[in-house]
Structures
1.
Amino acid sequence: MTHTLVPSDLIEGAPVCALTGEKLGAIERLMLDKSTGTVAYAVLRCGGFLGVGEHHYPVPWPKLKYNQMRRAFDLDMTADQLRGGPSELDGEAFDWGDRSPPYRHPQYWTV
Amino acid sequence: MTHTLVPSDLIEGAPVCALTGEKLGAIERLMLDKSTGTVAYAVLRCGGFLGVGEHHYPVPWPKLKYNQMRRAFDLDMTADQLRGGPSELDGEAFDWGDRSPPYRHPQYWTV
């Protein structure tokens, strides 16, 4: 039986690939709007080694599609597009809740 | 700076109390609608001992309000109302994605 529902803890940690199949990273967590209960964006964790030097990218939920064959989310963005958007390197002061700054990819912050 | 966003992994594991302050359990996970990215409901884990004999209850997201003082979610339901609704005991075959059965608390399954 297939459903339209998915558990949050199954999404966290799921691998994310570009449409080419290249692995980009993994979903670290989802950021939810408290009042509406809607996913504002997913945080994608990329690179690093043993948890050091990782980059964290906000990715709009509609850009992520689960690919049953790969058992991973497909992200309709290239690695370059991802790097061109907002990100946080470990330890940086990045305000994850602040969606006011104008980014090159404004859709990052749209619910 | 206060925001309207909250990370999914901070919600998972958060304690849940009745309005009286009585601890009811903890949020186990969120069930999300894949297409809309909306929380369909939260799963509340109650009772049990060392992970055995726990009950799992679907709870509508709008019924949960974070209480800063208690550092817990307030649930506007009594323990009796919770037990009167749908639940799963460990190991039971409960179809978490199936929102078709008529329950005594139909709002459980409303997004």
2.
Amino acid sequence: MIPVFSARHVEAAVSAERAVEAVREAFVAYARGEWSMPPKVYVPAYPAGDFRAMPALGAGHALLKWVTSFPGNPARGLPTVTGLVLLSNASDGSLRAALDAGAVTALRTGAAAVLAAETLGRQDAETAAVIGAGVNGRAAAKTFLARGRSVMLWDVDEQRARAVADELGADLASSREEALAADLLVTVTPGHEILLPEGSLQPGQHVSLMGADGPGKAEIAEQASHNGELVHAVEADAITRTDVTELGSVLAGLAPGRESPDDITSFDSTGLAIQDLAIALAAMERADELDVPTLDL
Amino acid sequence: MIPVFSARHVEAAVSAERAVEAVREAFVAYARGEWSMPPKVYVPAYPAGDFRAMPALGAGHALLKWVTSFPGNPARGLPTVTGLVLLSNASDGSLRAALDAGAVTALRTGAAAVLAAETLGRQDAETAAVIGAGVNGRAAAKTFLARGRSVMLWDVDEQRARAVADELGADLASSREEALAADLLVTVTPGHEILLPEGSLQPGQHVSLMGADGPGKAEIAEQASHNGELVHAVEADAITRTDVTELGSVLAGLAPGRESPDDITSFDSTGLAIQDLAIALAAMERADELDVPTLDL
């Protein structure tokens, strides 16, 4: 009997607060070499979108997330991100749980965005903002709030931003410029246009770049590649390799993070299956307690 | 509401006969370039076993099989092969079905073994044998019988061979040698020891090598590689590249198969996700008609 967590069950099982802790532990375990992540496979179904098979291994479990990125779906009333997370026991191969991939992805994306902001942002950061009020932007805003921090929301679709802000009890940014000037900035946009032109970040700011995962997409200037924003920035000499480290190394104390209050820090996120594994394991802890439906295979 | 096919439902939905036709169509579609198969990913959990994430794309669908190979599992009363097959709509990304991976794997492995034997074996082949009476060997024997052909079974574990033969109405080979001499031979062994030493195949025989998928395993002499049996045979000059083609090319009429009654033919199978896709699509055709349980995500 395998528990199956629908989106509702994932949200009931793992709070935003718990998700941040789980994702933190995953980053540290990966940085220490305890967890591993074989390369993800893209299954192209362009122009509509693509599927990704994302494996991870850690804490005695193997995980596979089968998930979509279909950017045109919301216009049809369908989710961009959908699919299933499968969690197996790594010592005997048995399937242990299935979880809604959209809910797991939103939870861990919000958690990673806020974790990076808290880790790399200034200690005395006052304002936080999320640009993009879709599923994952909503999750990032919700996570800031769960951590006791007020947050501004902005979206090209003002109605959408307002609806999410009202639902969560977040603030509505008066303009994109106000949001972009926040001390802790999270961007979760499709990346069709550059949100942050060169020189737009101010000393001391932090930005978590959570969107723009796909061919030809970018949220920040000079920086566009299939596998993240950093490659082109390094190629363009905007930053050097020594400026770049992994969030997990900072969290594990293996590398420095912010070194001065005037540093500009950015977290360039590509979705990592270790984050999904962290959420799946956290959900499993509460499978019995919650009335999660089961699958009999 | 997503139909979930347990092993029982997979078997009820797709007969061995239907599986052969479905797998034939998949091989042809792949040979014609209509279906595609991104590389599978291995997730190592050695020494116990490994997980495989196997994607395929075809007929408007994307498929991912998350499946194990844990060879020591049967000794613990657990299956070697277990997991889930996920079928998604390739035009909008929506999940369409989940199916028991062990049942799908057995069905398509049996189908591929017999399809290869029928395609490459002599027209006047009389005897058929299956060596290895595990889950997939049983499926191969069942498929021969479904095609109206009697079949001999042999296994190192005679009790197991007898039980499967009794269940299916197959014959029990009097010895391994008798089985090995069959006109149409299917081997489904773990590949820990060579079953077919050099020179043991007779002119006119066909062998479908269905086991031995893993590091250091082989069913036929000189031929062992992680990705199949052929690489080393070519390296050892036992066969030349021109002797090797794809079953799909033969089925599609793009390449010759057997050219004379005295040819020795062999089908070196590694599991292909296009075969799983063929079975999943065939199962879907009967989801409404059968009372398949559904999953509400």
